[in-house]
Structures are given as C-alpha cells and as structure tokens.
Amino acid sequence: MSTGTPRVIKARVRLGDRVFSTSTITAGSIIVAILAAVAIFLIAQSIPALVAKAGTLPNAASSFWDYVGPLAFGTVWAAFLALLMATPLSIGIALFISHYAPRRIAQVLGYIIDLLAAVPSVIFGLWGVSVLAPAVQPFYVWLNTSLHWFPLFGGDVSGTGRTILTVAIVLAVMVLPIMTAVCREIFLQTPRLHEEAALALGATRWEMIQMAVLPFARPGIVSAAMLGLGRALGETLAVAIVLSPALVVSFFLLTSQNPSTIAANIALQFSEASGVGVNALIASGLVLFVITFIINAIARAVVNRRRAFSGAN
C-alpha cells in the first residue's frame, strides 16, 4: 500500500472566472484610488485657508472655523429637518404600495415615485421659490402668532416664505422618491411565511407589519434614510434658489435670517472667489466630505448590527 500523502486536485480556473475576478478587483481599486485622490486634493487645497490670518478669509472671518461653522450648521440642520419629514412619509407610502394598495394602484404609484426621482433639482428649486414659499407664508404667520412661545417658531416671520423650513420641505420632496423606492423593495422582500404566520396567529394587518415587516426591514430603512440624507447634504441648486442665506447659527425656522449650506455657498461664491477665498471654499467642501463620511460610517455601523437578522429571531 502506498503511504504517501493524498494528491490535492485543484479545480481548473476558467478564463471567464479569472476575467470577472480581475475586473471586480480593478473596479474596487479604482474607486478607492479616486476617493483617496479626492481627499488628498481637498486637504492640499485647504491648507492655505486653514492657516490663513484673520481678515484674509471671506466675510472678514477671524478664522476658517468661524467661517465654516455656520455653513456646517446650516447643512446639517436643513438635512435633518428634511429627513425628519421624509422618513415617516416614505415608510408610509412604501407600506401602502407594498401591503395595502391594489395591484394596479400600486403599480401606478410606483411609477410616479420612480419618475419623481428623475426630476432635476433646479425644477424643485423653482417650484419651491415660485409656488411653495408664497403658499406657506400665511401658514408661517399663523405658526408665529400661535406658537411664538416655542423656540423654533419665534422671531420675526419672513414676509416671503423663503426660510430654512421651506428649504427643508423642498429637500424632503426631493429625497422622498429614492427613500420610498428602497423601502418599498425591502418591504416586498419580507419572507412570506413570516407574514402568513403572524396572520394565522390572529394578528391584524398592521400588527403583522409591526411584528414581521418592520423588524425585517429595519436595516433597509436605515440605508434608505442615509441615501436620502446624503442627497440632502449635498444639494446645491434647490437650496441656492429658495434660500436667502446668511452666515448665522439660528434654530428659528420662520425668520428671514437663515443659515446657508456648504454646497449652496460654494455654488454661489465660487465664480467670484479668488486667492484664499477659493481655498476657503475648497476647505468647506472638505468639511462636507468629512460630515458625509462620518454619517455614512454611523449608518453602516447601525446596519451591521442587524445584518444577521433573519426575520425569525
């Protein structure tokens, strides 16, 4: 008998597998390289603004952080308000399409939602400044008169309706399609057996959604919210058209003094900037880059905590 070690038989690597593996590795490497190149460019161009002396920065800011602070606040504040309005609406619309509406109505609503995602942001901006702002201004007056004791509704109400709240409504409408589409697909992927088991135990349709659908879809809902938040953080034209910006930090929603956003400020100021002003705008873009990266990292951590959920645990 032969006492030698058994011969290991290796599977033959096909040409198609090799090409596909190489292509995916190359594509992933290109993405990482582009991201690293963007980060290096932003950091290198931001250094002159970060070390600039007082008075040389735009708006006579004493330091770069005094300049970018109100912009970063306005970016996060507007995106947060938009997400606060869009998240429950997108979940409700997605649940209606996936579990309540008849098939024909669900298909029509699905097409409409998908078409809204293709509307250019400048159209939303024009709609916001021409239609939405004049329409909600009387409502803002009523809010200010009736709820002026609440800090968010205090101050002198704007006479044009072009406030941070109007911008948040426009951003919520803009991010609603992509959030609804993602939530709808996640809800439709809920295991059918889990839904039928909940109904068999005597649960109503809403109780079945609470027990089976929403827990299963929680990571997907977080991902949808982060996709919407990413678009809201980087939106430029709609904010620039609707908002009357100022370099202030204010939580008032109805006044004419509103914080601008980083993306809108870059779009409005870049064509006229020169010298350190250009570096300051690029440095503010770096801040937006970091904010977006941190938010996506937090979202990824939340999703990874639930990635092993099967719908049965």
UniProtKB/TrEMBL annotation:
GO terms for biological process: phosphate ion transport. It comes from the Bacteria. Belongs to the binding-protein-dependent transport system permease family. CysTW subfamily. Part of the binding-protein-dependent transport system for phosphate; probably responsible for the translocation of the substrate across the membrane. One of its GO terms (cellular component) is plasma membrane. The gene is pstC. PANTHER family: PHOSPHATE TRANSPORT SYSTEM PERMEASE PROTEIN PST, PHOSPHATE TRANSPORT SYSTEM PERMEASE PROTEIN PSTC. This is Phosphate transport system permease protein. GO terms for molecular function: phosphate transmembrane transporter activity. The chain crosses the membrane at residues 20-47, 67-96, 108-133, 164-188, 236-256, 276-299. The lineage of its organism: Bacteria, Bacillati, Actinomycetota, Actinomycetes, Micrococcales. Residues 72-299 form the ABC transmembrane type-1 domain. Its main location: membrane. It is found in: Cell membrane. The keyword Membrane applies.
